[in-house]
Write a structure and sequence with these properties.
Two copies of one chain form a homodimer. With 268 residues, chain A is of the alpha/beta class. The first copy, chain A, is 46% helix and 12% strand.
Chain lengths: 268, 268
């Protein structure tokens, strides 16, 4: 059970049933065990990436409200050494950010060499919420797909491997999660009427997500659509892609300094 | 088994035997279970702090090389929701940072309201390594204790609760950890000759740490000396202080919006 990247300009399926676990998915307990093993492997790979200090990995998460971004980040990246992980959340831009181009704040948060950078939302908001709410005219956001592709290509060519995940939840699952939030006094503060507005424009968002994902799933920065109605399936599938991606990067611990053995005797 | 804050201008004991677990410490397994429970409690308290969005918690870690800063941060704060935690590591300052006062980069990394900010090293380096290596003259670093106290007081009065930990490892334990690093090909890249230099100036650092901790353990930003030769004891003691500190802050979930129930019916 493994996700494939979306084909560039290919068809993106965001039907409700595509949010459900794929066929042949193992039972929850087995899935959880597999995810735990993947996270251990990720931990080792991250150490090597950090030690090597040459390249970076950028992991982008997009989702509808209650789509599970916080949850998957905590599960997959929480156990890692925090020195080598940065998480940047992109909410509505500040005045200072609005005084610059839309990629300015994104670029500033790009991960350092040796680290894994996680984007909780990203520059894709500028072709999603910005498009649906008509915050800029179509001739502006339409140019952004190519701008984003070129920006990501520059990052990739400069040593940052990129993977992007859309956590796909169904309309029914979102409803359940909203209701759970409202009924839980430790969670109901998270709810805001804006979330309902976005829900009411479900189909417009569908179209915006599908176009963004399809047009920007490049060989150097592929998009993955994660069936995310089940949290355990979501965590496993994301961990699997991240581990495979890092494995292909083959990060290597630097060769030991020839003087190391000499130092050994100097520790008194 | 609970740490007490160091008394302002009080005596700080950094003898080797003070790095060992205190008397009456439970067995490793029991300690680990207790730490896990504390981390769960921390998770709940963090949710409330985040929801309340009024105040912040700043946790400062200082230690000698191989003192365990990364380890304790991963163990105690790794499991939390990353949206509400930021970790800032302060290494040797960049040119840009050196063109400003020593608190400039520190201030820029202060945690946002609602979040927990962790400093992996901090402005205390400016009265530690800077002092021992004579990077500035004594009349400069001597003024810093009071400057730091006033800076931290301003933060505290503006809503940021501060706790500071010195992870105290003994000379023998550091030696063991250095040797382990050198013998492990996934870790020996971490070793650099500068670490040995600092080790050779053990007593000078002792004095610098003791003075910094004693002079800057204010009521609004107390220092704790953590016996850190045992990793499990270290994790437990830190988790205990952090949880107690957050508990005293009494973060509260905001009262539910009276319109919440009305929204409930609008989710279609």
């Amino acid at each position: 059970m493994k996700l494939k990247p979306i084909e560039l300009n290919g068809r993106v399926r965001l039907r409700d049933r595509d949010a459900q676990p794929p066929r042949g998915v193992p039972a929850d307990e087995e899935l959880k065990a597999r995810t735990d093993r993947l996270v251990e492997r990720l931990d080792e790979l991250q150490s090597a990436l950090f030690a090597e200090h040459e390249r970076a990995l950028l992991v982008v998460f997009q989702a509808r409200d209650a789509g599970g971004k916080d949850g998957v980040i905590r599960k997959v990246f929480g156990p890692l050494n925090s020195s080598g992980v940065s998480v940047a959340s992109f909410n509505a831009p500040t005045e200072d950010e609005l005084d610059h181009d839309y990629l300015w704040r994104i670029h500033a948060a790009a991960p350092r060499r040796g680290t894994i950078g996680i984007f909780n939302r990203s520059h894709y908001e500028d072709v999603l919420v910005v498009r649906v709410n008509e915050l800029v005219p179509p001739k502006v956001w339409k140019k952004r797909f190519e701008q984003i592709n070129q920006f990501e290509r520059m990052l990739a060519e400069s040593g940052t491997t990129i993977v992007k995940f859309f956590l796909h939840v169904s309309r029914e699952e979102q409803k359940q999660r909203f209701l759970e939030r409202l009924d839980d006094p430790t969670k109901n503060w998270k709810f805001n009427p804006g979330d309902l507005e976005a829900r009411n424009r479900w189909d417009e968002y569908d179209q915006a997500y599908a176009e963004a994902i399809s047009r920007c799933s490049t060989p150097w920065a592929p998009w993955y659509v994660v069936p995310a109605d089940s949290k355990k399936v979501r965590d496993y599938l994301v961990a699997r892609v991240v581990v495979d991606t890092l494995r292909r990067m083959k990060p290597r611990f630097p060769a030991p300094d020839p003087e190391l053995l000499a130092w050994r005797d100097k520790i008194v």
